Amino acid sequence: MKIPPAPIQIRFADIDIMGHVNNAIYLSYFENTRMHYFKYMLGRDWDWNKDGIILLKNEVEYIRPVRMTDSPEVTMKVDKIGNKSFTLSYELAVKGVIYCKGLSILVGYDNENHKSIAIPTLMRTELEKLKSEQ
Fold first, then answer.
1. What average pLDDT does the structure give for the chain?
2. Cα–chain center distance at 62
3. What is the separation, in whole angstroms, between the first and last Cα of the chain?
4. Is residue 72 packed enough to be buried (19+ CB in 10 Å), middle (13-18) or exposed (0-12)?
5. Degrees (nearest 5) of the Cα angle 93, 4, 84?
6. pLDDT digits (tens, 9 = 90+) for 94-107
7. pLDDT single digits (tens) 39-75
8. Which of 123, 77, 82 has the alpha carbon at shortest distance from 104?
9. Domain segments of the chain: what residues?
10. According to the CATH classification, is domain 6-132 in 1.20.1250.20?
11. Residue 124 neighbours by CB under 8 Å, 6+ apart
């Protein structure tokens, strides 16, 4: 199943004095995109405390400013899958034109026991499936 891009609703609070989306807000858009994709991949009943993830690193490349009147969508791809970590990349586009790119490295994490874990089996399977569809 091909997952549709995550639609982004720009809030007034996202806009800075320059009239475009503040640079820090893009990380929230990427987080929302991850959850959009994981909802399709893992369902709504996933136990994020036991079989969760924790963010290790973010990178953002700003290409064009996003404005209040824009209707962006974000697509997510899987770049790399290791034993405990995986790398996701994002493209934020408006009407098919890329405005921003990003990258996140995430680590499997057991929040109940406060330790890193191997990527849970179902999550790994779904990440591999998404990677093969790219």
1. 96
2. 16
3. 12
4. buried
5. 90
6. 999 999 999 999 99
7. 999 999 999 999 999 999 999 999 999 999 999 999 9
8. 77
9. 6-132
10. no
11. 81
